[in-house]
Structure formats: C-alpha cells, structure tokens
Amino acid sequence: MAVNKKLKPISGRLQDKIIVITGGAGNIGVVTAQRCLLEGAKVVLIDLNETQLNVAKTTLSAGCKSSIESPQERILAIKADVTDELQMENALKQSVATFGGLDTCFLNAGISYQATPLLDTSVELFDRCMNVNTKSGTLEDLHAEAFIGLKHAGRIMRDSGSGQGSIILASSAAGLIARPGMTAYGCSKQALRSLAMYGAAELGQYGIRVNTVHPCGVNSPMFLDCWPEHKIKEMLAALPLGRLAEADDIAAMVTFLASDDAQFLTGGTFKVDGGQANY
Ligand SMILES: NC(=O)c1ccc[n+]([C@@H]2O[C@H](COP(=O)([O-])OP(=O)(O)OC[C@H]3O[C@@H](n4cnc5c(N)ncnc54)[C@H](O)[C@@H]3O)[C@@H](O)[C@H]2O)c1
After folding, report:
1. Residue 91 has what pLDDT?
2. How many angstroms is it from 108 CA to the middle of ligand 1?
3. What is the dihedral of CA 190, 191, 196, 198, to 10 degrees?
4. What's the pLDDT score for residue 240?
5. Where are the domains positioned within the chain?
6. Quick one: pLDDT at residue 9?
7. Is the C-beta atom of 28 inside 6 A of ligand 1?
8. Which domain of life does the UniProt lineage start with (predicted)?
9. Which residues in the chain come in under a pLDDT of 50?
10. Fold observed for domain 18-271
11. CA atoms of 187 and 185, how far apart (whole Å)
C-alpha cells in the first residue's frame, strides 16, 4: 500500500464532506482516501485488518501533511468486519459521532482468489465470495456486505434529512463480462449491479444516489496474485488502452461520484477498465 506522491490538492470539491471507505486499508481504499483528503474531505477507513489500518492512517497522514493541515485529524480508522451487521452499523454510527455526518459511503471491501475453472469451483469458495463481496452469513441468509452497508448508510443519510448522499459499490469488470476462472468472484460482483439498481430506485426519493464502479485488473497484489503471468500478458494485449488500471484511476471515479458534479447520476454502471468490457 502506498500513496501517490505526484498527487496534489485538486479542487476542494469534497470540502468537509464525510466519506466512509470500507476495505479502507487496502490498495484502492488508501489511494481513494488520499484523493478524498486532498479534495477537502474527512475520511473514515473501515477494515478488518487492524495492522494495515494503522499503517494506512500513518501513511496517509505523512503523505498528505505537506498539502493539508493536520491530516491525522481528518482520518478515522475503525476495525470492523463489514459482513457483520452490528459491527458495520456501529462503525457507521461512530463515523457520524466523530465527524458529524455521512455524505458518501464507498463499499469497497472485497476478496478474490487464484483463477479457478468453474468445474473446479467449490461451494465453499463460491460461498466465501458471496459472503464478503455481496452478503454475509450463510447462503440462505441473504445479508450482504454491500447490502448491509447500503442499508445502514442509506438509513443514516435518509434520517439526516440532508436530502443527499452517495453510495458507491466496488464491483469489477468481472461483474459485467464473464472472465473464465472467475465464476464465484464475477457472480458476487454482478450481484452488486442489482443491489445498486434497487438502491437507486428506492433511495432516490431521499436524494441518495447509488452507483457501481467496475475496474479492470488493477496493478495490485489482489489482481497480480490471481493470474499466471502469461494470462496477464494476454489480458493486456486485449485491453484497448494497453495497461492495467492504477488504484488512482478508481479513486478519480469515486471522488467524482462522491462530488456534487455527479448529483444527477444514480443507478449507473461506471467502467474504469481501459475499454475492457466492450459490449
Ligand atoms: N485489485 C483489482 O484488480 C480489482 C479489480 C476490480 C475490482 N476490485 C475490487 O476493488 C475492491 C478493493 O480491491 P483492492 O485491490 O484494494 O484489494 P485489497 O485486498 O488491497 O483490499 C481489500 C481490503 O478489504 C478488506 N476486507 C476484506 N474482507 C473484509 C471484511 N470482511 N471486513 C472488513 N474489511 C475487509 C481487506 O482487509 C483489505 O484491506 C475489492 O472489492 C475488489 O474486488 C479490485
């Protein structure tokens, strides 16, 4: 995990917005937090991994201190398992109690695995992906990480009476196109589209927008550990823009969707994939 050293304060378009990022200690989470901070926001990082959370807070504070005043006061790190409804609800309440509101929730926690053919995919692997990426509990118990986050962030935004809010679900290009070897992951990410469509349809009346973001492979351990080198070369050769995504490409889209520039966008499918999902 590293911050982008070239990134400078941008526009102030997120000035004092309060932005929660789940999976906040991971690769995309940290870089998105950096952009949000540099655009003026206060950020809450929620993650299961306490050690990484501490590293994330320190790295972000150090990385932003020449650009913004007292960055450590604008970052809250909370250890929580986002598949546990009570833990997630409490983490969101703690965010509101600390910073006084909730403007954006980026539901970004997720897991992947080494590419596995459908015919060799175990129920356990399928279940685990759906549990963390889409739901929690057992297959019969349709609670979702994203569902839980959507529900509780949505309630807080509705009850605030602010008439606005942005909820962004981290899906994947694999949630738009079938990528052999990724059945369990792809299904869990495709399901997020549906969740966002329902969220957009029901929460629009409160001014809450719900959208999905679909990155192609990101230059990150999550992606590079999934595929053998020759497969990555094949994927790159088929990518119109000829490179993997960088975490900051996703961060740029998330900050846009968090901003008032995106105030009329909801239920949208936002590809950040160098043209991969060409359908
Ligand atoms: N990296 C890629 O190539 C890629 C491509 C498309 C989509 N995505 C999606 O983007 C998101 C972030 O990916 P990343 O590359 O930053 O991965 P990452 O592994 O660096 O970060 C994921 C974070 O989620 C956290 N997490 C996992 N389960 C959790 C739980 N139950 N509760 C709380 N935190 C939990 C992990 O601790 C980790 O810090 C994921 O949803 C991923 O599926 C990634």
Report:
1. 98
2. 6
3. 130
4. 95
5. 18-271
6. 64
7. yes
8. Eukaryota
9. 136-143
10. Rossmann fold (3.40.50)
11. 6
Instruction: Dig out the tokens for 30 from the structure.
Output: 């940290």
Pocket test for ligand 1, best of 54, 106, 108, 216 (most atoms within 8 A of CB): 108
CA of 233 to the centre of ligand 1 (A): 23
> What is the predicted pLDDT for the residue at 138?
37
Q: What pTM did the predictor assign? A: 0.94
* Contact 25 CB / ligand 1 (< 6 Å): yes
| Ligand 1 atom closest to 217 (CA) | 3
